[in-house]
């Protein structure tokens, strides 16, 4: 799954040298396979149920599905975390270069907070997509993307180098989650209570 943080991450990784770029690229690929794409696949069920619930004006089921999706992904972060903390060992077993394995391991360790952000972000995207509210989602993503560059630059240049790249990705995704929650809390037109139908009648 493509994230708006990926392209800037590669750009800053390249600026830190060849070995760092190679290790970071392996880490991003490993993260995409073991977590981000996996989370995206799990969220497909949320999309499907939410679309049906919206079509049936069953807003109780709609909200419940979003909540359950978040809980499911939060629970899923545990095995992914256990996998990530053993990345260096796994890569060495696969005969990868030790320096590359160490860099990838460091990157993923500092990307662990992003798992929490993704656990909220995927269901929130489903929340907006299934209601055809693409403009607020795009605007919030755009703002988070613009902020991502200076945040990454500051963390990489003055603090953590490759660790800063990983942390900036997580921070930017948390920013996006916060922006989406702010929109829902203060700007979204509330679903009419009069249009609710019970979950039982939908089933």
TrEMBL record:
Keywords: Membrane, Transmembrane, Transmembrane helix
Record flagged with keyword Signal: no
Ranges annotated as spanning the membrane: 66-85, 135-159, 165-186
Keyword Membrane: yes
Pfam families reported in the protein's UniProt record: MatE (PF01554)
GO CC annotation, single: membrane
InterPro entries given in the database record: MATE_fam (IPR002528)
GO MF term set: antiporter activity; transmembrane transporter activity; xenobiotic transmembrane transporter activity
Protein family according to the UniProt entry: Belongs to the multi antimicrobial extrusion (MATE) (TC 2.A.66.1) family.
Identification of the protein by name: BnaCnng41610D protein
UniProt source species: Brassica napus (Rape)
Annotated gene: BnaCnng41610D
